[in-house]
Write a structure and sequence with these properties.
Elements lengths: L1 H24 L4 H10 L2 H26 L8 H15 L6 H13 L3 H29 L1 H20 L3 H22 L4 H21 L4 H24 L9 H16 L8 H14 L3 H40 L1
Helix pairs in contact: 1-12, 2-13, 3-4, 3-6, 3-10, 3-13, 4-5, 4-13, 5-6, 6-7, 6-9, 6-11, 7-12, 10-11, 11-12, 12-13
Length: 331
């Protein structure tokens, strides 16, 4: 039965991805789409992919810093392979990449899975905070352009869809979480399953706390800044690759980076459909760019990033598998 629900969940998310792709490509003239692909300067796309690989390396180096206080000799190679395999896994099972990369470190170094998961929670929390700071900065300094998109295309759409104030939804979710954690704490000693959840939470907290004990906090902040600069440069070099949007500037690249980030967060396989939909929507709504041009831009941007993730992921998967087989033969 569990296997059935896993397959059903996969198919539902894949159907959502296909539906979003259909919405994105609806009305696009394929001849114009083909011409748009041919007009791109793929030297800039190659530059964007190279910067993407650099971002993977920076993320791996930053993640290693968080795990150093756990007392295990986690190397840059370990975290590099973990990050890459995590990205690759997301193309097969949405949002399972974080679990996969934790598993890589656990198998290679013997660090408790829960503690590794805690470092990922901390890392993603920092990313969320960074993204929020960038988002509000962009909104404040360019509200006349980007605020309209946020208000009309996202907030109003959510209100019309659910017919309820978004703050009520957030409040209900927070209340549910408080009740959930209270039940676990109250009955953790009486029920083995709740006790297991408690031990997992403790492991995650230990991993999070390890981040506050990292010996090189300033280096961590530098890596975080460098990581977002890489993401911004990936967006800008992709803009430079298209004659139809080459007039857009650094601020526009920053905005599209943020909008694209929302597309990758949607729990569908590799952001497929969601990324295409939100990027093309932003380009048509804010800049008045044609739907075909918007879809071409979104397609090459997404597929170049996806190809980078898949290549690096497959290479890391092969390296980890080979190292594991060699270790088993020696033992």
């Amino acid at each position: 039965m569990k296997r059935f629900y896993q397959v059903l969940r996969y198919l539902v998310l894949f159907a959502i991805a296909c539906l979003l792709l259909w919405f994105s490509f609806r009305g696009v003239q394929w001849s114009d789409f083909s011409e748009g692909l041919k007009s791109a300067n793929y030297a800039w796309i190659a530059a964007s992919m190279t910067i993407g690989i650099t971002a993977f390396l920076v993320r791996a180096a930053r993640w290693r810093l968080i795990m150093l206080p756990l007392g295990k000799n986690v190397t840059l190679s370990d975290t590099w392979h973990g990050v890459n395999i995590g990205y690759l896994t997301n193309f097969a099972v949405p949002r399972a990449g974080e679990i996969a990369r934790c598993g890589v470190i656990t198998r290679r170094k013997g660090v408790p899975f829960e503690s590794v998961a805690g470092t990922v929670v901390l890392e993603r929390s920092i990313d969320l905070l960074s993204m929020g700071l960038i988002f509000f900065s962009v909104m404040i300094f360019s509200w006349d352009r980007f605020g309209t998109f946020l208000s009309s295309e996202i907030i109003d759409a959510v209100k019309q869809k659910f017919s309820v104030n978004i703050f009520w939804i957030v409040g209900a979710v927070l209340l549910s979480l408080i009740v959930f954690f209270y039940i676990i704490y109250r009955y953790r000693k009486k029920h083995p399953f709740l006790g297991k959840i408690t031990s997992v939470v403790k492991g995650i907290i230990a991993g999070v706390l390890s981040g506050f004990r990292m010996p090189q906090k300033w280096l961590f902040l530098f890596y975080t800044l460098l990581l977002w600069i890489c993401y911004w440069l990936m967006s800008w070099t992709t803009i430079l690759a298209f004659p139809a949007v080459v007039g857009l500037g650094p601020n526009d690249a920053l905005f599209l980076m943020l909008v694209g980030g929302f597309g990758w967060v949607v729990p569908v396989q590799g952001g497929i459909g969601a990324y295409h939909f939100i990027i093309s929507l932003a380009l048509t709504s804010i800049y008045g760019i044609s739907q075909t041009t918007g879809v071409v831009f979104a397609t090459i941007s997404h597929e170049s990033q996806s190809l980078t993730m898949i290549i690096c992921g497959l290479a890391s998967f092969a390296a980890v598998s080979l190292a594991s087989k060699t270790k088993n033969k020696l033992s």
